[in-house]
Amino acid sequence: MSRTGVSKKPKLTAPVVIIGTLVLLIIAFTASLMLGPVTVPLNELATNPVVTDIRAPRIIIAALVGAALAVSGAIMQTVFHNPLADPGIVGVSSGAAVAAVLAIVTGASFFGQWTVPFAAFVGALVTVAVVYLIASSRAMDGRGADPATLVLVGMAITAFLGAVISSATANAPQDSELRSVTFWLNGDLVSRTWEHVGVAIIPIIVGLILAIGGSRDLNLLLLGDSTAQTSGLNVNRARIILLALAALLTATAVAVSGTITFVGLVVPHLVRIVLGADHRALLPAAAILGATFVIVSDTVARMIFSPIVLQTGVVVAFIGSPIFLYLLLSMRKRRGLGL
């Protein structure tokens, strides 16, 4: 049994799972390009302006955000030794969002188009540092903080940061800024453009590559601090680097999509159930499945009540929250049975 509460024994081989998830991603991506108020035939996808100017950048952002949040969640669950760790649940997404909102409201532009992502990264990094310190103080023996404790800490941090966002919203000098703040709170992909793709693609791709490159360190952390140290791993340095990568991925995702929760919680668990806990396969599969999950959710958001468009974050929450409750109840049941 792994530290995240899921058996390490894979049920399917990594190539089969990764190829299968890639096929699902391609199908979801293509279907999302075709579907909408105006259906675009497959042979016109490369030339139709509805696709090239409106749908394509939005769907690419959905894929990048899903991959980033799924991998970030997988990293946090391992570093905290906690199956309920997730950028949204522990407050890291809120930390990124509040910093981005403050940058919008104050009109900060010291890094040009990179100002909001940079502010979001700083907010995510500070929040993840606070959560890490609390988790460390609760678990000096390396077993990780109690899952309920981490959830409560996340709720407290999210409530505090929500108050900051409310204050910033109430004092926004212009209506356009108020609309931008509302975007961060709801997690939406409306009006995503190629400029947003340009902002997000490099940090997320680099973050994903570095995270997958850290798979060995994550596998060692699964075994506990003592075992990891005897294997030659500098545990503290590895944790800091991995959490910084998680903060980078979360911050960039929040910067272009607002706060979308549950992706980092649900997707890694689904992959572990099928594939096992080896991060060399877990992280790539989680990235692909996370991208597919958000693309499908965004397509449902656009189509289910057409012409009324739901926010992507709302659809993700509709799907993710029941799974989250199931995970909580199943953990409680295992503890009651002494498992």
Automatic annotation (TrEMBL):
Q: Which UniProt keywords apply?
A: Cell membrane, Membrane, Transmembrane, Transmembrane helix, Transport
TM helices/strands, residue ranges: 12-36, 56-76, 88-110, 116-135, 147-173, 193-213, 240-267, 308-329
Q: Which family does it belong to?
A: Belongs to the binding-protein-dependent transport system permease family. FecCD subfamily.
Matching InterPro entries: ABC_BtuC-like, ABC_transptr_permease_BtuC
List, alphabetically, the PANTHER family matched: ABC TRANSPORTER PERMEASE PROTEIN MJ0876-RELATED, FERRIC ENTEROBACTIN TRANSPORT SYSTEM PERMEASE PROTEIN
> Which organism is the protein's source?
Corynebacterium glutamicum (strain R)
This one is known as ABC transporter permease
GO cellular component terms attached to this protein's record:
plasma membrane
> Where can this protein be found?
Cell membrane
Question: GO MF terms on file?
Answer: transmembrane transporter activity
Q: How does it sit in the membrane?
A: Multi-pass membrane protein
